[in-house]
Specification:
Elements: H1 9-18, H2 22-31, H3 41-48, H4 55-69, E1 73-81, H5 88-97, H6 99-104, E2 107-109, E3 113-117, E4 120-133, E5 141-155, E6 158-165, H7 168-181, E7 187-191, H8 199-212, E8 218-230, E9 246-247, H9 250-261, H10 270-277, E10 280-291, E11 296-305, E12 310-322, E13 327-330, H11 335-366
Antiparallel strand pairs: 1-6, 1-7, 2-4, 3-4, 4-5, 5-6, 8-9, 8-10, 10-11, 11-12, 12-13
Length: 367
């Protein structure tokens, strides 16, 4: 595959029409000194398609369209070993050397790239996998998935794996692959799995994330969506959709957001309290935050998804505030910052789960 191939006018027009937002295209063209007055998106796309673009401009269009078209859900898990000198990097490289065995199972592993984040080393890898799925023409057809992941050495035999996936099944494949590499007599794998949480703990997790989700730099604004399920999950075949979920209406969400802004907890809200009494499990919530120092707002969706239902984080919208009127416009996050924000939120969720488990244990001891 030649990544340097210049796109055809048809390809540029299709991407602009079907993936990019009108405001982004307009700003992009104005940056080149091209102005369209009251033009439809189709007209903008036709106007941009025949213009010769530089490599950086093509990369900007490609990256923006890819970010919009791909879900980019971040999930993860921890690998804990009884051996303090355990290296997940070494385990991965040894397995990768047996390329023929992996290919026979439908996997192709990318090499690990060592880099730095927050002054600490981590390793970036990738996985390409093939699964059999019912086909449109064929009874069974091959479906190819791709995902990137990151290893972080936490010390004392513990490694953290973060999966930057396009869909929930990508995270599950990485989890399955890494788990299969390990010696189960000396290592165990831990993730944020809804089956490991009590019903009340799921509510407490989403409640705690209101304040700690993105850290001190961000201020909570609103709850945009909250989904719940009555009873535990029994659908073992469901990977991508939670069809039996229910959502709170706008009036209920407004009341919950107002209560949080007034300093009360999520579980103090009458609607939440009633659903908790009815044995409901919270499965997803969309939060809106604003940066305390920069003119930007973001909406993140945190949810339990896939089979098993593991915790993942995705960014729904990102906007910057412009002008004296404070108009909010959709914008594209740089790829690294996009992943880092989801990583911050996921890691804070991991801390919140550890905290609620500790509190539950302390409660048992007190009784």
């Amino acid at each position: 595959m030649n990544n340097n191939k210049y796109p055809t006018p048809y390809e540029i027009e299709e991407v602009c029409n079907n993936f990019l937002k009108r405001g982004f295209i307009n700003s992009f063209m104005q940056g080149k000194g091209i102005f369209f007055i009251n033009a439809r998106q189709e007209d903008l796309a036709k106007g941009l398609a025949p213009i010769l673009l530089g490599k950086e401009e093509v990369d900007t269009l490609r990256a923006s369209a890819y970010q919009i078209a791909s879900k980019h859900a971040l999930s993860g898990f921890s690998v804990k070993s009884a051996m303090v000198n355990f290296s997940l990097q070494d385990v991965y490289e040894k397995v990768r050397d047996n390329d023929r065995i992996l290919l026979a199972k439908g996997y192709r592993l990318g090499s690990l790239i060592r880099t730095m984040r927050d002054g600490k080393p981590y390793y970036k890898g990738s996985i390409e996998y093939t699964k059999k799925k019912p086909g449109r023409m064929q009874f069974l057809d091959n479906e190819t998935g791709y995902s990137e992941f990151y290893f972080v050495d936490k010390g004392n035999g513990e490694w953290q794996v973060e999966v930057d996936a396009n869909k929930s099944t990508d995270g599950k494949e990485v989890f399955k692959l890494i788990s299969g590499m390990l010696d189960k007599s000396t290592t165990n794998v831990v993730n944020i799995n809804i089956d490991a949480l009590k019903d009340k703990t799921t509510i407490e997790l989403f409640d705690n994330l209101v304040q700690i989700g993105l850290g001190e730099e961000w201020r909570f604004l609103d709850i945009k969506h909250l989904a719940f399920k009555r009873g535990r999950f029994h659908n073992e075949e469901d990977d991508e959709e939670n069809d039996d979920e229910e959502s709170l209406n706008k009036e209920q969400l407004t009341g919950i957001s107002q209560a949080i802004l007034e300093g009360r907890n999520l579980r103090d809200d009458p609607f939440v309290l009633q659903y908790e009494k009815e044995g409901c499990i919270f499965t997803a919530m969309t939060y809106e935050y604003e940066n305390k120092k920069q003119p930007e707002t973001i909406q993140l969706r945190a949810e339990f998804k896939g089979n098993p239902k593991i915790f993942e984080v995705s960014i729904i919208t990102y906007k910057i505030t412009k002008g004296l009127e404070g108009k909010k416009e959709s914008a594209i996050l740089p790829t690294d910052r996009h992943r880092n924000l989801r990583s911050i939120f996921w890691n804070n969720a991991k801390k919140a789960v550890s905290y609620t488990h500790l509190r539950a244990h302390e409660t048992v001891l007190d009784l």
